[in-house]
Amino acid sequence: MSSLKKNETPLTIDVFTAGLWKENPVFVMMLGLCPTLAVTNTLENSLGMSAATIFVLVGSNALVSALRNLIPKQIRIIAYIIIIATFVTMVDYLIQAISLDLHNKLGAFIQLIVVNCLILGRAEAYASKNGFTKSVISSLGMGLGFTLALIALGGVRELLGAGQLLGFQVFSPNFEPWVVMILPPGGFIVLGSWLLFFNYLQQRKITQLISKDKTSHCSITSN
Amino acid sequence: MSNANEQHKFPQSSTLITTLGVIAMLSGLLVVVVYEYTKPIIAENQRIATERAIFKVLPTAQTRLTFLVEGQSLTVADDKTIGELLYAGYDKNNNFVGVALNAAAQGYQDMVKLLYSYQPDTGCITGYDVLKSTETPGFGTKITTDEDFLANFNCLQAMVNKEQTGLENIIKTVRHGTKQHPFEIDAISGSTITSNAIGRMLNQSGQKLHPLIIKNLSLLKHPKAK
Questions:
Q1: Which residues of B touch A (CB under 8 A)?
Q2: Domain co-membership, B146 together with B177
Q3: What pLDDT is recorded for position A56?
Q4: Domain limits at A76?
């Protein structure tokens, strides 16, 4: 118990921001790709799925963290799955209470949150090893990172696939929608394009660092 | 020695079972609390959605009554009744204006459920409202927006045969541009699977329920007299 506490890293802003960008679940860790590709054909669906995922992620990680010292490691995975399934069932009822239309649109993907590897992955890799507050803050950051990714996909797909955003017409009626964007291939195309863009930025940053390093090295040698 | 240590570290089965039992009870409690809290809200949402659909497919209706299908007869019921329901609409003078019925069939992605209106006097299906659909946006969703497709339902013939055992003609969806009869549905080009699902569900529902409606027409028209 005390050794666990000694191993814990301090609570900093990085705990929250890591999930947003540096360890973004979709664009960096490539987790939870099934709902990412399946329900991002409109921005509304993306927001609905994000809200449901945040609820399950934060709730299950909070409970896993609170019970982490009581759950024997031999049965930890089955215990985490029970906890995650509980929150998925709860969010299923809550979405039906909030909006039947949204529930119909998200369909089976609400129940499928239970097998979203992002949630089990965070429970196993983080919540089971860290305190309650840190787990909640980290999972909130991860959930918001997941939301950003879904918005990035859903926004582009709805805009190009239907010429709309949240149902409001953005392009003129003369715009011919790229229907492929709201079909399954569109999910792969847009996700691939975003990954290409982020990898390009990463590569450029590394190249700049290397050239800067070489310049400083040369100046030291010449001196 | 190390084996003995490992055995010592492994928790007893009773500990594992107790832990799982406690977690399962905690989970059950959370689910029950949320279920009990949301149950009346969900029921009300479903009632509102059904009500909205009924008055959409029967636009001249001001009031409506729910009927439960029991074998070959109908009985007045309320919305909480479990079973196969249909809805009769009445205008402001309490005149019967038509029946709204549920229908469902497998679409491209999942089940497509809709509520459609039937006029027993003319034998026409005159419109529908989609209650549940997860069809592909831009393709399957055209069943609510495609004007040519919706024109099929100005009066889709669904008359009952003389024996009152089924429909006079099978309602079916035909390839786009090949409709020849008033009981055929002209499919949407590119949304054939969803168009076929509409045809299948209307035929299935019509074969079963339209004869029943004709047999119980006097009850539907004058429910208070019975």
A1: 10-11, 15-16, 19-20, 22-24, 26-27, 30-31, 34-35, 38, 41-42, 45-46, 49, 109-110, 132-134, 136-139
A2: yes
A3: 95
A4: 2-205
Residue B3 has pLDDT above 60, yes or no: no
* DSSP assignments along chain A, one per residue: -HHHHHHPPP--HHHHHTTTTTT-TTTTS--SHHHHHHSTTSHHHHHHHHHHHHHHHHHHHHHHHHHTTTS-GGGHHHHHHHHHHHHHHHHHHHHHHH-HHHHHHHGGGTGGGGG-HHHHHHIIIIITTS-HHHHHHHHHHHHHHHHHHHHHHHHHHHHHHHSEETTEE-S-TT----GGGGSHHHHHHHHHHHHHHHHHHHHHHHHHHHHHHHHHHHHHHH-
Residue A172 lies in a domain: yes
Chain A residue at shortest CA distance from B27: A86
Interval A86-129: pLDDT, tens: 999 999 999 999 998 888 878 778 888 888 888 999 999 989 99
pTM of structure: 0.78
Q: Per residue in A155-182, pLDDT tens?
A: 999 999 888 888 788 888 888 888 889 8
How many domains does the structure of chain A reveal?
A: 1
A71 vs B19, B27, B134: nearest CB: B19
Residues B17 and B94 in one domain: no
* pLDDT value for A20: 86
Shared-domain flag, residues B93 and B168? yes
ipTM (interface pTM): 0.80
Domain assignment of residue B16, given as a range: 2-39
- Residue A184: which of A41, A66, A18, A28 has the closest Cα? A41
Q: Evaluate whether residue A222 is within a structural domain.
A: no
Residues constituting chain A: 223
Picking from B20, B49, B109, the nearest residue to A79 by CB comes out as B20
Contact status, residue B92 vs residue B110, Cβ threshold 8 Å: no
Number of domains, chain B: 2
Over the stretch B142-177, which tens digit does the pLDDT of each residue have? 788 888 899 999 999 999 998 889 999 999 999 988
- Let me know if residue A27 belongs to a domain: yes
Q: Which residues contact A198 (CB under 8 A, 6 or more apart)?
A: A27
Residue A220 lies in a domain: no
